[in-house]
Each structure stands twice: as C-alpha cells, then as structure tokens.
Specification:
four-stranded mixed sheet, 10 helices, globular, seven-stranded mixed sheet, 341 residues, alpha/beta
C-alpha cells in the first residue's frame, strides 16, 4: 500500500481508499498526521538545515533547554541507543552488554546485537559485536557478568507485543547495576513521551534514557538523555565530536519537537481514557501501546491500519495499536466496529 494523503487519524492510499490509522506511523505521529501546530512551527523556522557539529541553530539550543536533562542528539532511535551504549563503554571500560529476550533496539549493528528478536539478528550474526548476555524479560537478571558495563531495557517491550514487566523489574535492574558498577540504559524510544501514560518512563531508575520516534512529531530526531548528568562529560574529547551526523539537531525537527514537548503533557489524561477503552475491548499492554490476537491483514482489509507482530518464540500472531493521542471516541468506535467485521 502507498499512502498518498494523511490527516489527523486517517490516511488514504493510491486508490483513494480511507483507513483509520491506529499505528501513528509506528508511534511517531502522536499528535496526529499534519498537526497544525507542528506545521506552523516548521513553516516559521528561520533556519532549515543544521551545520552538523560546527554550530547549532537557535531553535536547537531552545530544544535542549526544554529537555529535563542534558542530551546528545541523534536522528534515529537507533542513534540514541548507539550513543547510550557507547556512553556506558566510555564510562566503565567494560564491553559486556546485558539485554533481554524480545527486545528491539534498532538495526544498526551495535543496537542489533542487543536486540532479542532472532529474525532481525540472524542474517547479520557474523558481524554483530559483543559480548551480549541475554536474560529473560521481566525476571531478575541475577548478578551481572564481571565484564558487563551496561544493561539495556525497554519499560514495555514494543516489537515483542507490548509485554509489560512486573512493577519491581526496573528497580531490581537498578540494584543490579549499582552492585556491578554498570550503566542502566532505558530504551523509551517507543514507550516515551506519553505512549504508556508517562512522559519519561524509566527515568526514575535510568542513567541514560533514550527517546526518539514521536519526539519530532513526524520529523526524525532522537536523544540520549543523561539522567545521570555527569555521564555527559565522557564525550569530552576536545573540539571534534566523535559521534555526530550532518543532521544532528536539525532545526526543523527541533521546532517540531518543541511543540511535542509542550502539547503531550496536556494529553496524558486523554491517553489514560483511551487506554482504558482499549483494555475494556480486550487489548493487552499499557497506555496506548496495545496488542490483540488478530491478523493485521484482516484489519487492513476492513480499513484499519495496525502494526503486525509476527508469531515468534512461542508467541502468537498479534496486531498492535499505537494510535495518535488525538484519536476521538467516535474514531475509536469506528475502528472497533470495522475490526469486528
């Protein structure tokens, strides 16, 4: 399917057929497609291109100031993971990574090594870095390996099917990292910015918090947030930045991100309301990251876009919803009615 138009919570294909979008483009368009405030911010931006690490635009500096912690900026969510894992190596000198079954952290080789989904990893296994120690998501890891410098974890696993861990899971990881002198990286790229009902999920335990996807409201931008603020300084190598992109801190994306940071806190009560409606309809997960046992192809045939979650590692085929926070009650009723056909 080719999208030719998108507005709010609806998209249209090349044949003019309309769909209700319960994906928000993998959780990106949390304020809806073509959000007027984001479009206005982009239109009014006085600078449209970054200068890499040579100089920042004024709006990029404003964006940094609006974040709750110091940050190193990226373009994709995988960038934020890469920055976080490299930060741990620089801070501890230990190369071992503790990660979890079912995890998804991106498709760059370092992030892919930490990813727990074999269908993504297997074709590139000979090139994957390590060592990586795989643990069971939601369970105590036990004492960390001696060479483990980092634990990376999602507050709720997205691509594995909106798996919600026990309440004591993240605090237990914090304790294990403290015991081993390891850095705790919380990958909130899919779950952050209100998706599971919290603005910064996992920040109460994280040393580094990764955010992306929805951060730019549709434009690509990500950030590794140094909750443990002194970690920012492990990147002090002099004038030249050793991890950068031409588009890091892109002014258009930063302008859009400022809108997201301003608007999302106002919508958190609405996220809770919609989450309850999904739960009442038999969708599992947390907040507005939900799954149900049904085929994504069936949903698409009936005019609803959902994210397909293939059967893997003993888990059934699921469809996943990560809708815009601007979804109305009438639109959700319509989507549920279509899915029931």
């Amino acid at each position: 399917m080719i999208w030719t138009r998108a507005e709010g919570c609806r998209v249209w294909d090349e044949n003019g057929r309309e769909y209700l979008d319960l994906t928000a483009g993998f959780g990106v368009a949390l304020l809806g497609h073509r959000n007027p405030k984001i479009l206005e911010a982009i239109h009014n931006a006085p600078v449209v291109h970054a200068l890499g690490d040579l100089a920042e635009a004024e709006v990029t500096r404003q964006f940094r100031g609006a974040l709750p912690w110091p940050a190193k900026l990226g373009v994709t969510g995988e960038d934020a993971v890469e920055i976080a894992l490299r930060t741990a190596l620089l801070a501890t000198g230990k190369p071992g990574i503790v990660a979890f079954d079912g995890a998804y952290h991106g498709t760059g080789l370092l992030a892919l090594a930490a990813t727990g989904l074999e269908r993504f990893r297997e074709p590139f296994a000979p090139w994957l870095p390590g060592p990586v120690y795989r643990r069971t998501y939601g369970e105590d890891t036990g004492a960390l390996p001696d060479d483990a410098g980092v634990v990376i974890v999602e507050p709720v696993q997205g691509r594995a099917g909106a798996r919600v861990p026990p309440d004591d899971f993240l605090p237990a990881l914090r304790k294990r990292c403290d015991e081993a002198g390891a850095v705790l990286v919380v990958d909130a790229i899919f779950t952050g910015l209100g998706r599971i009902g919290e603005m910064w999920p996992g920040s109460e335990v994280a040393d580094v918090l990764c955010v992306g996807k929805a951060l730019g409201g549709g434009l690509p931008i990500s950030a590794a947030l140094f909750v443990k603020t002194e970690l920012e300084h492990v990147w002090d190598f002099g004038e030249e930045d050793l991890y950068t992109h031409t588009h890091s801190g892109n002014p258009l994306a930063c302008a859009a991100a400022l809108v997201v940071l301003d608007e999302v806190p106002k919508l958190l009560p609405r996220v809770d309301e919609l989450a309850q409606r999904f739960a009442d309809a038999g969708w599992h997960g947390k907040g507005l990251l939900r799954t149900k046992r049904q085929s994504a192809a069936h949903a698409q045939r009936n005019g609803v876009l959902v994210i397909p979650i293939p059967a893997n590692e003993g888990r059934p085929t699921l469809m996943q919803a990560a809708p815009p926070f601007t979804l109305t009650d009438d639109e959700l009723d319509e989507a549920f009615n279509r899915l029931a056909r």
